[in-house]
Amino acid sequence: MNHQDLTNIAREHGSPVYVYDAEVIIAQYERLVSAFAKAKQLRVHYAVKALSNISILKLFKQLGAGLDTVSLQEVELGLVAGVDPKMIIYTPNGVSLEEIEKVAAKGVQINIDNLSILEQFGSKHPDVPVCVRINPHVMAGGNANISVGHIDSKFGISIHQIPHLLRIVENTGMNVNGVHMHTGSDILDIGVFLYATEVLFETAAKFKDLEFIDFGSGFKVPYKEGDVSTDIEELGEQLSERFNKFCDDYGKDIALAFEPGKFLVSEAGHFIAQVNVVKQTTSTVFAGIDSGFNHLIRPMLYGSYHGIKNISNPEGRQRFYSVVGYICETDTFAQNRQIAEITEGDLLAFSNAGAYCFSMASNYNSRYRPAEVLWHNGKSHVIRKRETMKDILKNQEVVELELATELAE
Ligand SMILES: *Cc1c(COP(=O)(O)O)cnc(C)c1O
């Protein structure tokens, strides 16, 4: 998509607006599939939480992907999108047994990440095959908040508890059909990741009826020029070979599974906002936009970097700006960033806005959540309308309390 396409969409649908380029999603999906072409069997489950619009889920279904879900509601969205429940894996953390049972009743693949629930579920439903989430205690993450494989993590069943896990499986007579790990976001070092997979292979060999091994996700995508990202092709080459050898030793061809979110949708997304005010202080030039962390929270939450281009003046002289939102607390998208000269009314395009942007948006400050537009073959399709005051009021019940007369003055 070029600047003109993005500008036209913002003019037509208003700002702020999220725009997703379907071709980029398709290209990333195909890149992943070809990287693992040598693996005996590959299953890609798109992580719904990254971007959960039903039209996006439908696109993944058309591409042949399954879904990775973390809540009953994500499962239901997948079913609304027409995805076969057998193509959905449910990997919750800390949810109730009741929720897991509801999802299992829909025919979705269950992935359990603690021994307490595993024992309860296995005792009640020994016929439902489950996958177990293992914590290999390997830290592959980029940011302390998003690494989930290390020793203090709340995720997964520790490899030190495998004997206990095996006893539960034996006592309940349940069937473990998959083993899983998700060592955290932002895999930079393939060596570290492959080391974690060795731990998982070792664990997998202890189960007799596996259908798949799920290596989770955490592929890193580039945010700016020169950024290091996961070398998917190299990882695909090495892991496929190692996986096929595992299948030979195991005596059965099982599937190699992944569940990427960010890798598949991050770069496809653009967030377009308009500059309301340019404000010069003694030390800084602020560009204040018609949005805030209510629409895109990643910079404030994780310190994430999003590229920002002035698409109304792309060739303008480069100047330094702090790009800020309209929320009434610190609300900074970028500090001291070089951007082509900004005039009030200009449109700014934020890159890497496909993953964890709209899906984390809120109505804070009672603002509407933006529209979402899917771009394909030179055409834009609105896949979610901008909210209105109706949405803000939707579930509110108006109660007027009867106060004591002296208070009600
Ligand atoms: C969030 C999540 C993913 C996706 O992670 P990305 O970094 O977006 O690829 C995959 N698996 C599980 C279990 C997750 O919680």
TrEMBL record:
Needed co-factor(s):
pyridoxal 5'-phosphate
Q: In which pathway does it act?
A: Amino-acid biosynthesis; L-lysine biosynthesis via DAP pathway; L-lysine from DL-2,6-diaminopimelate: step 1/1
Q: Which residues carry this modification: N6-(pyridoxal phosphate)lysine?
A: 49
Give the UniProt record's GO annotations in the biological process aspect: lysine biosynthetic process via diaminopimelate
Q: Name one Pfam family in it.
A: Orn_Arg_deC_N
Q: Report the EC number(s), separated by commas if there are several.
A: 4.1.1.20
From the UniProt annotation, give the residues forming the signal peptide.
Answer: none
Quote the InterPro entries the UniProt record gives.
Ala_racemase/Decarboxylase_C, DAP_deCOOHase_LysA, De-COase2_C, De-COase2_N, Orn/DAP/Arg_de-COase, PLP-binding_barrel
Sorted keywords for this record are:
Amino-acid biosynthesis, Decarboxylase, Lyase, Lysine biosynthesis, Pyridoxal phosphate
Chain residues that bind substrate: 298, 302, 329, 356
Q: Where is the Orn/DAP/Arg decarboxylase 2 N-terminal domain?
A: 25-266
Q: Reaction catalysed?
A: meso-2,6-diaminopimelate + H(+) = L-lysine + CO2
The Orn/DAP/Arg decarboxylase 2 C-terminal domain covers 18-354
Q: Which residues form a coiled coil?
A: none
Family per similarity comment: Belongs to the Orn/Lys/Arg decarboxylase class-II family. LysA subfamily.
User: Subunit details for this protein?
Assistant: Homodimer.
Spell out the protein name for this chain: Diaminopimelate decarboxylase
* Organism phylogeny: Bacteria, Pseudomonadati, Bacteroidota, Flavobacteriia, Flavobacteriales
